[in-house]
Every structure is written in C-alpha cells, then in structure tokens.
Please model this.
Amino acid sequence: MPSACEQTGRKRNPDAQSSDRVWEAAANGYDRAAETFQPFAEWLAELCLLREGMSVLDVACGTGISSLVAARRVGRQGQVVGIDSSPRMVEIAGKKALTAGYPQVRFLVCSAESTCLAEDAFDAVICNFSLHLFHDETSALQEMTRVVKPAGKVGWTVPAPDHAQEMIAAFARACRELRVTTSSEGHKPLKPDLARIHELLERCRIRDATVSERRHVFCYEKPEAYEQVLRARMGRLLSRAPEDRRAEISQRMLAALLKDNERLTFTCHAYGIVHGKSLRG
Ligand SMILES: C[S@@+](CC[C@H](N)C(=O)[O-])C[C@H]1O[C@@H](n2cnc3c(N)ncnc32)[C@H](O)[C@@H]1O
Model:
C-alpha cells in the first residue's frame, strides 16, 4: 500500500471529498489518455530546467506521468516525490516507477493544500494540469512555494481556452438535447482565465512569474483509439451531470464526436506558469 502523509487524516470538506471520488474512480483508466499529458509533462520539465541531481516534488501526480519524466531528468543522483489525494492513483504510479526501474521516485497519498513535507526541501515543484482542480488553489500554491528552496522553481500548467474544446462542446450539446441540467456547484470552473491566474499569483505574493502557452492537437486514425482517450478524459465533465444520466450523455457525446469530428481530434491547450518562492510577510 502507498504510504500517506500524516496530515491527510484531516477531514476534507464535502466538495473536496466528491472531487476525490471522481479521481479515485478515474484512476484505472487514466493512462489510456497518457499520451495527451506526456508532451505537457516534458514541457513543464523544460520550463523548470530539471536536470541531473535535482530534488523535485510533483503535486497531484496522478498515475505518475510527470513524476517519471522528472525522474528521467534528475537521474539516480536526484530524487522525485509525487503526491496525490487519490490512493489508487498513487498505487498505480508506484507500480509504474517500480516497472520502469526508478528507485529515485516515491509516492505519497497527500492533499496538495496541506502536506507533511519540510519547508525549503525541493529544487523544483511541478504540478501538471491540476492546480485549477484543487478545492483551495491559494493554499495549494502557498504550500508549493513553502516547500521549494529559496532559489528553486515552481512550475504549473493549467488548461487554456481551447483545451478539450471538442469534448466540452459535445457535452454541452448532449445535455441540451437530453434536457439535462448540469451543476457547477462544488466544482471549479473548467478553465481558469488569465485574469484568474494573475489574481491567484497576486494573492500568493508571487511577482516573478512568466506565463507561456502551448497547444497540441492529437489526431487519431482509429475510432477505437479516439474513443479510448475520450472515455479516459470525460469523467470530470460527466460528474457535472446527475449520476443516473451520465451513461446516456456519454453515449451521445461519443456518437457525435465520432461522426462529426472527421479528423478525430483532441485539442490540448495549456498555460505554463513558472516562478520562484513567493515573497513573505
Ligand atoms: C488531471 S489529473 C493529474 C495529472 C497529472 N499531474 C499528470 O501529469 O498526469 C488530476 C489529479 O489531481 C488529483 N487531485 C485533485 N485534487 C487534489 C488535491 N486537493 N490534492 C492532491 N491531489 C489532488 C487527482 O486525484 C488527480 O490524480
């Protein structure tokens, strides 16, 4: 079993618990869409200048896609710690690290907002496509800057306007046609806009951030491969609909995307934000 941070025993609020359930349920199929995260994990490693011998924290590591990219870069002289609130994600990540032969990586079940990690402990802290999901993104970003060394780098990616546009449009259309009312209660906005990102940086007293952008359109030749990626990535969207309607919505979404989207595309579009430790006081 994966080890847990001491503080994860703390009670999470109901919204956070419901988000935890969505991710725990998504864990087994998550790697079916791994190739859509991989280029962004590589990009984040470049933005943070990860290299031999560094110590890296991967926040909300999921099944360890970014942690393993980091492990390759820091080599056996370095170390990587991946944390995630989903025990199943952490378990899968641990098995993958073992199979890949990376003893320099370990994984912990731990919430991003409150970790048991020491202050000033890491050369770099990375967080790929996750900060926008946290119940309390301010506390999470403060925690990320607390544990980075004074000269270290904190880097994170979040979805930008075009991200998953095909899937989101198909979801909205299916809900409209089936007369399903969706709820965003307890859910974060699907995509943080630039104003929201700058507000967050300001709240955390981060003044040295650079923001860049990357877009990648994945095209699939085989409908089966495309469907697999869509299924792996639609869980969070579907959780906005009532549970008893999700099956028919996903069926309608898949049928529409396979029929209307001739090039079978999935668009990933992200902002990448890099900065140092936040100002104190
Ligand atoms: C989009 S996925 C992970 C992406 C992963 N970073 C990658 O590169 O593949 C989001 C992850 O955030 C985790 N998560 C959500 N809220 C969290 C929180 N408050 N603390 C830690 N992990 C969280 C979920 O369990 C899930 O594994």
In short: Residues 3-163+189-217+269-275 form a domain with the Rossmann fold fold (CATH 3.40.50.150).
